[in-house]
TrEMBL record:
One Pfam family matching this protein: N_methyl
Name of the featured protein: Prepilin-type N-terminal cleavage/methylation domain-containing protein
InterPro entries in the record: N_methyl_site
Lineage: Bacteria, Pseudomonadati, Pseudomonadota, Betaproteobacteria, Burkholderiales
Transmembrane annotation, as ranges: 12-34
Key words of the record: Membrane, Transmembrane, Transmembrane helix
Length: 186
């Protein structure tokens, strides 16, 4: 007589345990995929905010910093203080009627950007940039101390650009503009 043959295969309990373990693992993996997919737009918004802020900060930093209004004062290149201006000392904020958008009477100095804001991003020709209508941007310009320069001297300006995205998140960039040649607007 030969010993009874053992049947090969899985029992019902083993099969059920396998299904439960695989189900739990799949549920955990799907949760990770759903979270990653839901958050995949966030880096795009953050990148857009950063690009807008960098662009606006660079635009402001490229403007001249002068004691006198560059388009309205004959002493703009020689004045060493606001008292040296012939008629129009540069003040914080734009002069009457000035705008960021050209072609005439546009911002011509770093100080003109103080308090500037826009809802929906627009280029210098005042054309809305496609896909950026849900963003807002604002600029603050203030005299500040920088190394050996005192805030009262007016020789250093701190530029703060704040950009908010459609998801209500915001990013803040700061930069500096210094007066390195009083007799030159640039």
């Amino acid at each position: 007589m030969s010993p009874p043959r053992r049947h090969r295969g899985l029992t019902l309990i083993e099969l059920l345990m396998f299904i439960v373990v695989v189900g739990i693992a799949l549920a955990a993996m799907l949760r990770v995929f759903v979270t990653a997919t839901t958050a995949s737009a966030d880096p795009m918004i953050r990148r857009q905010q950063l690009a807008i802020a960098e662009s606006l900060l660079r635009e402001v930093q490229l403007m001249p910093i002068t004691w006198c209004d560059p388009t309205g004062d004959a002493n703009v290149e020689t004045a060493t203080s606001a008292a040296g201006c012939a008629s129009l000392a540069e003040a914080s904020g734009p002069e009457a009627g000035q705008t960021r958008y050209g072609p005439t009477n546009y911002f011509d100095n770093v100080n003109d950007y103080a308090g500037f804001s826009m809802s929906g991003i627009r280029d210098l020709s005042n054309t809305a940039v496609s896909g950026l209508s849900g963003y807002t941007a604002g600029v603050a310009v203030a005299a500040a101390a920088l190394d050996s320069l005192t805030a009262g001297s007016g020789d250093a300006l701190k530029i703060t650009v704040t950009v908010s995205g459609p998801d209500s998140s915001s990013i803040v960039l700061q930069g500096w503009r210094t007066r390195y040649a009083p007799q030159s607007p640039y």
